[in-house]
Design goal:
Strand content: under 5%
Order of helices and strands: HHHHHHH
Largest sheet: none
Helix content: over 70%
Keywords: Membrane, Transmembrane, Transmembrane helix
GO biological process, one term: regulation of gene expression
Low-confidence stretches: none
Shape: globular
Protein name: AbrB family transcriptional regulator
Mean pLDDT: 84
Organism: Formimonas warabiya
Structural class: mainly alpha
Length: 174
């Protein structure tokens, strides 16, 4: 194995280790991305992953998603069809609008714009971007910022909703 590839793997594991113990949600992925990105930004091009590695990661990502589907999920789908259809309709409409803005206003290619604006696990979107020859850096950056905004805004939203819920409960008790 070439030295640069070993450095890439080492940087990824170091970042993943730091991310895991930071207790940030998704810290392993974020940490490995930050450390390897930092090295690349500093001009230390570590290596490109060989195709066999990328393919293996895609297979593992697919298996990770597939293992979450259980008989209970399939059973519960029947009850969830209407809310899920509504949610998908609204989300897909907003994704298409954002995609067209990224494409027309900012000049991004269709696939990069689509994957950047699509909801989904950051890991899956990054792997998909690589296999579809999209601009993985843009897709990763958008999903990283989306992820961080959810992580940092959730406590604020919970605080606001808790206050709103307390006001609502107080009004009902009068």
């Amino acid at each position: 194995m070439e030295t640069k590839l070993l450095w890439l793997i080492a940087a990824g594991f170091l970042g993943g280790y730091l991310g895991r113990y930071s207790r940030i949600p998704g810290g392993v992925l974020l940490g490995s991305m930050v450390v390897t990105s930092w090295a690349n930004a500093k001009g230390v091009h570590l290596s490109d992953l060989p195709f066999a590695y990328v393919l293996s990661l895609q297979v593992l990502a697919g298996a990770l998603v597939g293992e979450k589907v259980t008989g209970r999920i399939l059973k519960d789908m029947k009850e969830m069809m209407l809310p899920v259809f509504f949610l998908l309709t609204v989300v897909m409409a907003s994704v298409l609008i954002v995609m067209m803005i990224l494409y027309r206003v900012f000049g991004w290619d269709y696939i990069t714009a689509w994957l950047s604006s699509s909801p989904g696990r950051m890991q899956d979107m990054i792997v998909l971007a690589g296999s579809l020859k999209a601009d993985g850096a843009k897709v990763a950056t958008v999903h990283l910022l989306r992820h961080l905004s959810v992580v940092f805004l959730t406590p604020l939203i919970l605080l606001i909703s808790k206050k709103a819920g307390a006001k609502q409960a107080k009004a009902l008790n009068k």
